[in-house]
Design a protein that fits this description.
- The complex is a heterotrimer of chains A (290), B (764) and C (156).
- Chain A has 290 residues and is of the alpha+beta class.
- Chain A is built from 12 helices and 13 strands.
- Chain B has 764 residues and is an alpha+beta fold.
- In chain B, the strands form 8 sheets. Chain B has a 7-stranded mixed sheet, sandwiched between helices. In chain B, strands 7-16-15-14-8-31 form a 6-stranded mixed sheet.
- In chain B, β9 and β10 (208-212) form a beta hairpin.
- In chain B, α8 (362-380) packs parallel to α15 and α14 packs across α15.
- With 156 residues, chain C is α+β, with helices and mostly antiparallel strands.
- Chain C folds into 2 domains: 3-77, Beta-grasp domain (Ubiquitin-like (UB roll)); 86-155, [2Fe-2S]-binding domain (DNA polymerase, domain 1, Orthogonal Bundle).
- Helices cover 34% and strands 13% of the residues of chain C.
- Classes of the chains: A alpha+beta (290), B alpha+beta (764), C alpha+beta (156).
- Chains in contact: A-B, A-C, B-C.
Chain lengths: 290, 764, 156
């Protein structure tokens, strides 16, 4: 096994193209588990830890460009205001030690349906920027990035450069069910984002389908009901029946399975509860901000 | 670079007798990272051993081809069953398990072959090149079907390990109030943090020195000798640093394997399991299927109990028979029940082998009887504490095997103490870390209901049913550098509980010395028995005390000659020989000179007795230990998520030799019982383990644990040294049922299975 | 490959490292520093926690090559000039050490906490140490030790 350690993005892309047998590693919190457990023996490790650009984030034009190598700990510390949903989700990842190393780029690269970053990225309407040496950069809306169970839209010669996340225009929430109070893989997860500027609602469901996914019908339903009740303008109270109906539609958008962590029925049920609560909290925050 | 291979001459602490809380002598080494655990062992010229394991729960081995594996560069040996020089059999109670599988594999993970190589990666690559030709066979995976006539046989003559029937009083007793339940307990794992590890060093005499983390050196030695075909003088065991045990190291793991590889290669061999392999490398707690019925008068006093308990022993016997013994004889709880019909079964299946885990058959049954007591309370209009005060044992009562509980049985007092402890304040929901789900942000208080639950339980201490339960201690007293030094040498495994500190405290108390050296633990002294059954402070403590007394007698006999006074008038106080009023008469140095006085003593507790095979009656146990818990939980009833707010306990420990260490053991035991109630289960489907990792076998984190108020009672057992009662297991037994009861109180759900999953609470 | 890393203030150079090895393996098996522990090797227990350039990480999840040129501090580096760090002293005094296998990782994690938050609340301590499993103590005396060390550091 070779260890390749480029020090620039261009070098990283070149190596990626030359070595299709290389596996990219940044924080190592997924890749090293596979190595330690003898599940993967790639021809090479492509260490992205010395590519400084990947560890930067910038804010411009209402977006945050989050380098693929920014660890969760920095998202929590630095981006709580701009990306509250992602910051809340980051706080639930693994352990403090994992959060110092783990990255959103890694979460996207692994594309596990249980990844904690995915629901808030979906709810916010993020865009993933990837690049290859041969073709340069391209952008993929995050909802199109997940193509199957632990599969993503990367071509073999591509690496993830950054994820572009709209700066929060309104309140965001993230909830995750786990059978322990810390350091737990999601049994189910839900994120929502209110976009009062567009009078839209964003959602993201985790661990309840082959890929992370939105609940578009639930989003339209809630946005529409808020519109027809004049609530976007009046910022009146969110009726409990509406929150409950939203929750049911979110649950209906999932395609969960039974596995060792939980049953499909429980996953659906928990999504309806989380979505109801998250929508209630987000709307309440919106009212307070007014 | 060579490190000290597993032997530690522990540093000494200068003060602390029985009843004090001196610091543990290995504490400094442990906080500096210098303490040598078995997985830290290193030897010049060592090679690494790895194990090839069966992927099938049940199969016949048609052939094993190792030729390709042998061609891998760096491989020094590949071994199979044919290479076992002695008997290819081991086991705690019955030698029914092969060292390496020969004709059959009977559980997923059963060892089939061994590889030694110069790097663990090389050894793993080579192991993957061993070709095993398996014929997959039907597996028995439902223990309730294992005793059916048409069940495939795991072993001949059949799948029953033990049936313990217990009959007392009137089998046809009737009562006006009858409650019953079915209860299931999932398979818990000891999940000790230190992975199985050992280092086997071949010796010039053709024998081997094995440095290993374990619970009972001599029973390991016996089994290794059988497999190697060697006498004990040639198989020397040394206790390496142990990273927790909880019953999971009573059976062999790397022991024979490492020795075989070392003797074959002529090189030291290190074997160390990773966490995934560890889940396959040791026995687990027996899962249980329990049906109980209680009959009572209208005032709630118990009239009869009927019980049927099936424990899934998995593929090999391990200590299943003894676990069945406990589940039967202790399985109805610390209550007075005049008429009893109990049938406890341990069966073979092709599921993972089960054996000892802290609580040993009492944990599973406690969930059932405590749930049923709460049912009974509701049926007769009493609260959970009242029903237990009414029925609780007292000193002098007879238990369900007809044995008299002949020392303190403070069931009522323990319950009253936990009932009266201050309750925690309501949760501060402004900080989500205080809510169920914590930082996962699932509730800000919505749906959260608080519940309180109680439990009182008991456990036997020591090995029961007539087992010859003893320990050996060698104590040496001499002058060194003008100071009296005692050295204590036992084979008793320190696994973290603080036994080495206790040994020092006893020596200081009995001999008056300050400086006590704990000799490395090895088989050069007689057996101390197992570090299990909450027995070591009692039995090894008793042996150390007795050896000190013997040393003292010899010293005082010499002093008597020296002083021309009767020995009965003299006392030993460290460096001083004193008279009846404590006046110093002479120095130990004058009496001993350069001599050392050394005595080795075997100590036994009062004998226990086998129970009658038809009625289960008999004085099976030597001591009982009682504990009670009160649990307070907040439950998000819509999501089924639980946060334990308080887990308070009271326990009678007889005499707290080291009060701080006693409380530490109670904290840790409570956490393990809580873990089984809430989150811990080895999930087995069709004989396959679905969650062999810490990702999905969850043990409590610091954010799951509540604060714990602990009250220790000291009602001496007059038959035990210093009056001690075993400490380690009782908290693991009463904690889980209290948590389960609290969740029932919060949710109104019957919850007849542990671990309790969110689905059980939400009903989805 | 060759690994050159500063560990506990001393530069270490190790040859013939297989690139798939973790920093934990290199520390334990090649640099003679077995203080960091290998309870799970998948980042689920914290027993391998070390400082990497001043931040506490699971060393089992750091590839050996990723540590090249970096500064590592392990439990073996917490004591200075033969004096135990106040946290180490407090762990021993409070009975927070039973089998001790979790202790090295906990010490590094707690050391980091007290460096960032000198007077942590109970919930802050629990959240900061939620990545370190202990099977023996139920965590109660570990909390006592962290609070004792924090008090002592505040008074010093």
């Amino acid at each position: 096994m070779d260890f390749l350690q480029p020090t620039s993005w261009a070098d990283a892309l070149a190596v990626c193209a030359e070595r299709p047998d290389a596996v990219a590693i940044a924080g190592g919190t997924d890749v090293m588990v596979d190595l330690n457990f003898d599940r993967r023996r790639p021809g090479a490790l492509l260490d992205l830890g010395r590519v400084a650009d990947l560890r930067e984030w910038t804010a411009e034009d209402g977006w945050v460009r989050l380098g693929a190598g920014v660890p969760y700990a920095r998202i929590i510390d630095d981006l709580g205001a701009e990306l509250p949903g992602l910051a809340m989700a980051s706080r639930t990842v693994g352990s403090p030690q994992i959060r110092i190393r783990g990255t959103v780029g890694g979460n996207l690269g692994s594309a596990s349906p249980a990844g904690d970053a995915h629901p808030p990225l979906l709810a916010a309407g993020a865009v993933v920027e990837v690049a290859s040496a041969a073709r340069g950069a391209r952008r993929i809306p995050v909802a199109e990035f997940y193509t199957g169970v632990k599969r993503n839209a990367l071509a073999p010669d591509e690496l993830i450069a950054a994820v572009l996340v709209p700066t929060a225009a309104g309140p965001q929430q993230f909830c995750k069910v786990g059978t322990r109070n810390a350091m737990v893989i999601a049994v189910s997860a839900f994120a929502c984002a209110l976009h009062p500027d567009r009078r839209a609602v964003g959602t993201g469901i985790g661990s309840a389908a082959p890929t992370p996914r939105r609940a578009p019908e639930a989003e339209e339903f809630l946005a529409g009901e808020l519109e027809s009740a004049g609530l976007w303008d009046s910022r009146g109270a969110l009726p409990e029946t509406l929150a409950r109906a939203f929750g049911e539609r979110v649950a209906a958008a999932a395609s969960p399975i039974d596995d060792v962590r939980g049953s499909a029925a429980y996953r659906r049920h928990s999504l309806s509860v989380m979505a109801r609560r998250a929508a209630t909290w987000a709307w309440s925050d919106l009212r307070k901000a007014a | 670079m060579s490190t000290d291979t597993g032997t530690r001459i522990t540093a000494t602490t200068t003060a602390g007798r029985v009843g004090d809380s001196p610091l543990r002598p290995d504490g400094t080494l442990k906080v500096t990272g210098e303490f040598a655990y078995a997985s830290d062992l290193w030897h010049d010229d060592m090679v690494w051993g790895v194990t090839l394991r069966s992927p099938h729960p049940h199969a016949r081995i048609r052939g094993i081809d190792i030729t390709e594996a042998l061609t891998v560069a760096g491989v020094t040996a590949v071994l199979t069953a044919d290479d076992v020089p002695g008997e290819n059999a081991f086991g705690l109670e019955h030698a029914d398990q092969p060292v390496l599988a020969a004709e059959f594999v009977r559980y997923e993970g059963e060892p089939v072959a061994l590889v030694a190589a110069d790097h663990p990666e090389t050894a793993r690559r080579a192991a993957q090149r061993i070709r095993v030709d398996y014929e997959v066979l039907p597996a028995v995976t439902d223990p309730r079907r294992a005793m059916d006539d048409d069940a495939p046989a795991v072993h001949r003559p059949g799948n029953l390990v033990r049936h313990l029937p217990l009959r007392r009083g009137n089998p046809a007793a009737r009562a006006p109030v009858v409650v019953s339940l079915d209860f299931e307990v999932g398979m818990q794992d000891q999940a000790f943090l230190g992975p199985e590890s050992g280092l086997a060093v071949p010796a010039e005499d053709g024998g081997v020195d094995l440095y290993v983390a374990t619970q009972w050196l001599h029973v390991d030695q016996r089994q290794i000798c059988l497999a190697l075909g060697m006498p004990p003088e040639k198989v020397r065991l040394h206790l390496a640093g142990v990273g927790g045990a909880f019953g999971g190291r009573e059976d062999l793991s790397v022991h024979v394997h490492a020795c075989l590889l070392a003797l074959r290669t002529g090189r030291p061999v290190k074997m160390s399991y990773g966490r995934e392999e560890s889940f396959f490398g040791h026995v687990h707690r027996h899962p249980a299927w329990i049906t109980y019925e209680f009959g009572a008068e209208r005032d709630g006093s118990l009239v009869y109990a009927r019980a049927r308990t099936v424990l899934d022993g998995g593929a090999y016997a391990s200590s299943t028979a003894a676990v069945v013994g406990n589940a039967g004889t202790l399985g109805l709880g610390p209550y007075r029940i005049p008429n009893v019909t109990v049938d406890a079964y341990g069966v073979f299946t092709n599921n993972p082998p089960c054996g000892a885990m802290r609580g040993f058959g009492c944990v599973q049954t406690a969930f059932a009887y405590e749930a049923l007591m709460d049912e009974l309370a509701a049926a007769v209009g009493l609260d959970p504490v009242e029903i237990r005060l009414l029925n609780g044992m007292r000193e002098g009562d007879t238990n369900i095997t007809g044995q008299v509980v002949d020392s303190a049985a403070p069931v009522a007092e323990l319950l009253q103490i936990v009932r009266d402890m201050p309750m925690p304040p309501p949760a501060d929901t402004s900080d989500i870390r205080a809510c169920p789900g914590a930082v996962c942000n699932t509730t800000h208080g919505e749906g959260v209901v608080r519940g309180v639950g109680y439990s009182v339980t008991y456990k036997n201490v020591g090995f029961s049913e007539g087992f010859d339960d003893f320990s050996t201690a060698r104590v040496r007293l001499e002058m060194a550098g003008g100071e009296a030094v005692a050295t204590v040498h036992t084979a008793a495994a320190e696994v973290g509980q603080g036994l080495i500190t206790v040994q020092q405290q006893i020596c200081r108390t009995e001999l008056g010395v300050e400086r006590v050296v704990v000799h490395p633990t090895n088989t050069a002294v007689g057996s101390s028995g197992s570090t299990s059954a909450s027995r070591q402070t009692y039995v090894t403590g008793g042996a150390v005390k007795a050896a000190c007394e013997a040393v003292r007698a010899v010293v005082l006999a010499r002093a008597a000659l020296f002083l021309e006074r009767p020995a009965a008038e003299l006392g030993l106080d460290g460096e001083k020989i004193v008279g009846a009023s404590g006046e110093v008469l002479t120095g130990l140095a004058e009496v001993l000179g350069d001599d050392a006085v050394e005595e080795t003593v075997e100590y036994r507790h009062r004998p226990t007795h086998a129970v009658d095979p038809e009625t289960g009656q008999g004085a099976a146990h030597v001591q009982f230990a009682f504990s009670a818990h009160r649990a307070v939980v907040d439950v998000d009833v819509e999501l089924g998520l639980v946060k334990v707010i308080a887990l308070d306990t009271a326990q009678d420990v007889g005499k707290a030799i080291n009060p701080d260490a006693v409380v530490g053991q109670i904290h840790g035991g409570s956490a393990q019982g809580m873990g089984l109630a809430l989150m811990e289960e080895i999930v087995v489907t069709d004989g396959h383990v679905r969650n062999p990792s810490f990702t999905d076998y969850l043990i409590p984190t610091i954010l799951d644990m509540p604060s714990m108020q602990v009250k220790v009672l000291e009602y001496a057992d007059p038959h035990a040294p210093y009056g001690v009662r075993g400490v380690g297991e009782p908290p693991t037994i009463s904690s889980g049922p209290a948590v389960a009861a609290a969740i029932r109180a919060a949710t109104g759900k019957p919850l007849r299975r542990v671990p309790i999953r969110p689905e059980h609470i939400t009903g989805t | 490959m060759r690994i050159t890393t500063t560990v506990n203030g001393t530069e270490h150079e190790v040859d013939d490292v297989w690139p798939g090895e973790s920093l934990l393996y290199v520390l334990r098996e090649r640099m003679g520093l077995p203080g960091s522990k290998n309870a799970c090797e998948q980042g689920e227990c914290g027993s391998c926690t070390v400082y990497l350039d001043g931040e506490p990480v699971c060393s089992c999840l750091v590839a050996a090559g990723q540590a090249v040129g970096r500064e590592v501090i392990t439990v073996e580096g917490l004591a200075t000039e033969g004096q135990l760090h106040p946290l180490q002293q407090a762990f021993v005094e409070c009975g927070a050490v039973q089998c001790g296998f979790c202790t090295p990782g906990l010490l590094v994690a707690a050391h980091d906490l007290l460096a960032r938050v000198p007077g942590p609340s109970e919930l802050e301590i629990r959240e900061a140490l939620a990545g370190n499993l202990c099977r023996c103590t139920g965590y109660e005396k570990i909390l006592d030790a962290v609070r004792l060390a924090a008090d002592r550091q505040a008074q010093a």
